[in-house]
Amino acid sequence: MKKFIVCLGLIALLPLVPPPAAGEANLKEASPGEVNLYSYRQPFLIKPMLDEFTKRTGIRVNTVFAKKGVLEKIKATPGVADAVLTSDVGRLNDMSEAGVLLPVKSDILEKNIPVQFRHPGGLWFGLTMRARILFVSKKRVKQAEATSYEDLTKPGLRGRVCIRSGKHVYNISLIASIIAHKGEAATRIWLEGVKANLARKPGGNDRAQAKAIYSGQCDIGIGNTYYMGKMQTNRKKRAQRKWAASIRIVFPNQAGRGAHVNISGAAIIRGAKNRTNAVKLIEFLSGDFAQKFYADQNFEYPVKPGVPVSPIVKSWGDFKADTISLTTVAKHRRAASKLVDLVDFNNSTKSSNN
Amino acid sequence: MTAATDSSPLLARPMRFLRADIWTVGTIFFAALIATPILTVLILAASPSGDIWNHLASTVLPRYIRTTLGLMAGVGAGTAVIGVAAAWLVTLCRFPGRRVFEWALLLPLAMPAYVVAYVYTDILEYAGPVQEILRQVFGWSSGRDYWFPEIRSLGGAASMMTLVLYPYVYLLARIAFLQQSACVLEASRTLGLGPWRSFFSVALPLARPSIVIGVSLAMMESLNDFGTVDFFSVETLTAGIYDVWLNMNSTVGAAQLATVSLVFVLALIGAEKWSRRSQRFYSTSSKYRPLPNYHLKGARAAIAFAVCVLPIAFGFLVPAGVLLNYAARFYEESLSANFLTYAGNSLMLSSISAALAALLGLFMAYGVRMSGNPILVAASRLASVGYAVPGAVLAVGVMIPLARADAAIDGLMRNLFGIPTGLLLSGTIVAVTYGYLVRFLALSYGTAESSLAKVTPNMDGASRTLGMSPGRTLRRVHFPLIRGSVLAAAILVFVDCMKELPMTIILRPFNYGTLATQVHQFASDELLEESALGALAIVAAGILPVIILSATIRGTRPGHSGEKG
User: Fold this and answer.
1) What DSSP element (H or E) covers A285?
2) Torsion of CA A133, A139, A141, A143, to 10 degrees
């Protein structure tokens, strides 16, 4: 008994032992050669770029990858993080509305990033662009059957559409963009129409929709462009190439407003202690090396004019993107989320296999 | 054993309110410490959240509540049936494989629920092998030709969670059965009850407090699950909390919904207390002989075998097999340079937290037992509801007070010594450890409380009369009796910490990772193959303690150093 208690006690005292190197940096305020980064993007995606940045500038990048609680963390411990990387404009907008972002004026950023992909006041900067497109079955969907988001509500597509959760941030942004263009009432009718056409309850990620099309469960799905690139080139998961091969890419609304696009982006946090380094990091991410890396490795569209897209992405052809301001779209996100509740989008009454 | 109404002199002496011994003060202090983040969430919830409630009440709130109740009912029923049946069989019956089942039944505990959900979705969805074979065999051409249960559904989510959560019930029920005196069971048999009747009218009621704790832990865990319900887009309260928080950008609204889910937990705890009313069962007999062994033969043995092997197969063997296959093919992608560091971090964080949780849980349960002060009881209850709050929301509740404390310490140190201390708490693993304690104290406190409740207060009285201090009484009298339960609690906390995700992610310092965060960076994009190696490492780290645990609880039978079966 005594030994047991002593053992437990000793283990319990472990946190008082000074933490090893990785933790040590946090006790001190960041030294001049650092930048502290909160990232919504996965480490395996960004690490090679950050390593290259460190190699070139000597500035060490400390990162935390998190998809939730970042805004609250910034508010609770101001001055700890210098910059944030997100995978959606919505988060950037939340942060700018919360007043935690620092406006930045940088000639390099303004030169590298076209005006529609950055905040007018310099609060955030888009780094890559992706379109939300239609995945349609090569075999079962005719050329003219689905060319726009609106087509997804056509009676001819009953029981043939599949999509990931209506609450997913990518779908929320898409719905918000439709609200921005057509108003809430029309968007609600659209959502109800899509719901009526669903082949199965919304779920899975964008890849899962491709798999469902390949297997014949549905004929049309919605997905982000880079997922298509990743499936088409998957070296080890051969099955995904088959899924991709069964699909034709349709950039929607080419005759009208254009396909809905979203950005991944970055911003500087108010109170940043390593502001100069953080700006350098974002400038680096908007430069040729990083833009090409994004394009080649993750099949995203670089925002910097003149940086080529990957050959795979090029093979899909050019497309017309919706030019509505992303800030405007982001403002309608809350309304979009409410509409998804109102029409009970995620509880498609259809049973699984209809 | 005696059934007594709760009026023991030790627990209800006047003037107890005024006593300020170390147990009372300590218990209040720890309860306050652990309850702070929960209170922070409640305070956050007290701010206005605009029009969100109008929207919620008129649209999704009834649905959230219905779905949540359905999920909890499903998981509660599923874990109770599997857990109790398996525990009874391996503890009191003899049939082939029993010695292996004893520990193997605990294995699914180490599996994160969302990983199991991914694995079974791949297998059971329309595009998966099961339905594909069915279509080929029966010549069906599309989903319109047949019916197959949809895995991405409420039922699917409840099944997935039942598969990995039943070990809570199994573990606690088994300990309870082991601690029962053979005399009681024999007396019941002598009085003419058959094995079934003596199970239902004697063994089960006696084990009920432990079973109820196990079931309510499983239900609370299902309440706060996000990974699985998000993957299946099942709209529970927790899914709603994240939606309000992240899509409607309202932290306050999320905190308010979290408060609603707390009401569920309090109702659960209240219902449990009410159902027991004032009955208490204490072990008073010191006569422990080997438990009766019902020899099962033929069909009965086969059924018992199936009852034990199926949960292990579906909750562990199948998912572990799939993970192993993926890990073998994709280890290059997942094996980052820091993998070993992450494994070390996971082990260290989980061990620290498990040890702390076990000590704190025991201390507080004993403090409450000794004082019986209603304020103390309430404070300890509040401290153990953290288990049911979604991790990410609780993390915000942990972060805010820690950041304040840091600012205060920093200011003090600057003024006094001119040394800035920076983020001493919120920027280090202290924050993560604290978060784990807040989240998992319910496991150790609940277990300690229920096993202490079985020790008759007469023992306390005797020991104190003989001049032992409360501390020595705990060490010399109680601890030996409940050692198994305390260890069980520590191991439950350990395994849970290994799997814990949202708090780790939000509270960790820069450049700090664990196996769970390593799994998450892939799993968040449903890259199950790449996440397999990390997930397997978590499972592997959980297996050894689980086996130790099983061996230890065999020896927890009072009056026996080990039971031969």
Assistant:
1) helix A275-285
2) 80
Cβ neighbours of B235 in A, within 8 Å: 346-347
Closest CA to B88 of B296, B288, B269, B313: B296
* Residue A26, pLDDT above cutoff 50: no
User: Within 10 A of B188 (CB to CB), how many other CB atoms are there?
Assistant: 18
Q: Which two tokens stand for residue B101?
A: 């089942």
**Residue ranges covered by each domain of chain B:** 30-285+295-554
Same fold: A31-128+261-315 with A131-260+317-342: yes
- To which residue do tokens 């108010």 refer? A270
Q: Report the C-alpha gap between B75 and B218 in whole angstroms.
A: 7
Question: What does the pLDDT read at residue A351?
Answer: 44
**Matching residue, tokens 């039944």:** B105
Measured between beta carbons, the chain A residues lying within 8 angstroms of B406 are: 77
Task: Grade residue A307 by pLDDT with cuts at 50, 70 and 90.
Answer: very high
Q: What is the pLDDT of residues B501-550, one digit of tens each?
A: 889 988 999 999 999 888 888 887 778 888 899 899 998 888 888 888 78
Rounded to whole angstroms, the Cα distance separating B128 from B122 reads: 5
Question: Residue length, chain A?
Answer: 354
What was the pLDDT predicted at B454? 77
DSSP string, B189-228: HHTT--HHHHIIIIIHHHHHHHHHHHHHHHHHHHHH--HH
Structure tokens at B519: 């799994």
ipTM: 0.82
Beta strands in B62-127 (DSSP E): 93-94
Q: Which of B249, B330, B473 would you mutate first to test chain A, the one with the most A CBs within 10 A?
A: B249
> Between B285 and A183, whose confidence is greater?
A183
- d(CA B324, CA B322) in angstroms, rounded, equals 5
Q: Which residues of B, range 195-224, sit inside 8 Å of A by Cβ?
A: none
Is the distance from CB of B31 to CB of B380 less than 8 angstroms? yes
Q: Does domain B30-285+295-554 have CATH number 2.40.420.20?
A: no
CATH architecture, domain A131-260+317-342: 3-Layer(aba) Sandwich (3.40)
- From chain A, the residues in CB contact with B148 under 8 A are 352-353
Q: Which two tokens stand for residue B491?
A: 């191991």
Confidence category of residue A23, pLDDT binned at 50, 70, 90 = very low
In this predicted structure, what is the pLDDT of residue B79?
A: 97
User: Of A31-45, A158-172, A331-345, which range is least confident?
Assistant: A31-45
Spans of all domains in chain A: 31-128+261-315, 131-260+317-342
B399 interface with A at CB cutoff 8 Å: yes
CB–CB of B207/B178 below 8 Å? no
Closest Cβ opposite residue A333 in set B142, B247, B480 = B247
Amino acid at A46: I
Interface test with B, best of A95, A340, A341, A351 (most B CBs within 10 A): A341
Return the CATH fold of A31-128+261-315: D-Maltodextrin-Binding Protein; domain 2 (3.40.190)
Q: Spell out the residues 6+ positions from residue A329 whose beta carbon is closer than 8 angstroms to its own.
A: A89, A173, A176, A177, A180
Which chain A residue lies closest to B357 (C-alpha atoms)?
A12
Provide the whole-model pTM.
0.86
